[in-house]
Amino acid sequence: MTPSIIISYDDTANDRDALALGRVLTDAGASAALAYVRHARSPQRAQEVVEERRAVDLLERGVAAIRAPESARHVVVHASTGEGLRELAIREAADIIVFGSDYRTAEGTVRPGTSAERLLSGGPVAVALAPAGLHARAGLQVQRIGVLAEGGDDAPQQTARSLATALGARVVEAGDPVDVLVVGSSAGAAHGRVTLSAAAEYEIETSSVPVLVLPRGAAVSFREPALSAA
Burial letters for 21-53: b for 16+ Cβ neighbours within 10 Å, e otherwise? Predict the structure, then answer.
C-alpha cells in the first residue's frame, strides 16, 4: 500500500525545507498532500474571501515546487497548527506529517517547532523533520539510512529497509554516517503513539540529516518486498 504524507506548508524558508523532504518521500513512492493551517476566519466576508484565495495560492506554489500537480491541498482552520494537522491526518488516514525545523534553527541542524513537538508527544502519526536549509541544497542523495530503535519494536528497522529499497539505498550500522535517520518511539510508549526517550530526543537535536519518527509498533511501508523466486 502506498504511504501517504501531509506536508505542513506556509511558504516560509523552513517549510520549504519540509517540501524538499516531502519530495524525497514522494520519490520513494509516497503520495503527498500539502496543508496550510489558518488560525481564524475573518469576520468580514470580503476579507475572508481574500484570505481564502491567499491560502489556495500558497498551496498551489507549494505543489508546483515539488512538481506533483496531483497532490491534494488542504486549508485547515484551527487555533493550533499541531492539533489541526493531527485532526487532518486522522481524517485522511495519513502515515506521516512532514515539518521543517523551528524558524530559529541553525542551518544544517534539526529542531522541532511547537507544532511538531505536539505530535512528538503522544501523536498518532509518524513525524518527519527536515534540517534547516535543506531546500537550498543541490539535492538530498539518500544512500545510507540509520535506525534508532528501542527493544521489542521492529517498526523502525522495517521502515528503514522499505525506504532503502525504494530509494536504492542501504541500512547501515549504528554509528555510521547516514543521510536519513529513522527513529522509533520509547519502550514505554502506547502502541501506535509517538513518545520519545531522552536518547532519541538527543539524537534528533544533534542530527544534521532528515529524521523520521515512528509511533510505537507502526512501520511505514514504502515498497512491498519482492517475492523470492521459488
Answer: bbbbbbebbbbbbbbbbbeeeeeeeeeeeebee
> Minimal CA–CA distance to 63: which of 55, 72, 54?
72
CB of 59 closer than 8 Å to CB of 73: yes
Nearest to 24, CA basis, from 126, 135, 174: 135
pTM of the model: 0.91
The x, y and z cell numbers of residue 104, run together, are 530559529
* Rounded distance between C-alpha atoms, residue 178 and residue 106, angstroms: 19
Closest by CA to 7, choosing from 82, 100, 87, 79, is 100
* CA 121 from centre of chain: 15
Distance CA 25, CA 19 (A): 10
* Rounded CA separation 128/174 (Å): 20
126 Cβ partners below 8 Å, 6+ apart? 95, 96, 97, 194, 212, 213, 214, 215, 218, 220
Nearest to 217 by CA among 200, 186, 199, 192: 192
| pLDDT tens digits for range 197-225 | 999 999 999 999 999 999 999 999 996 54
Contacts of 41 (CB under 8 A, 6+ apart): 48, 51, 77
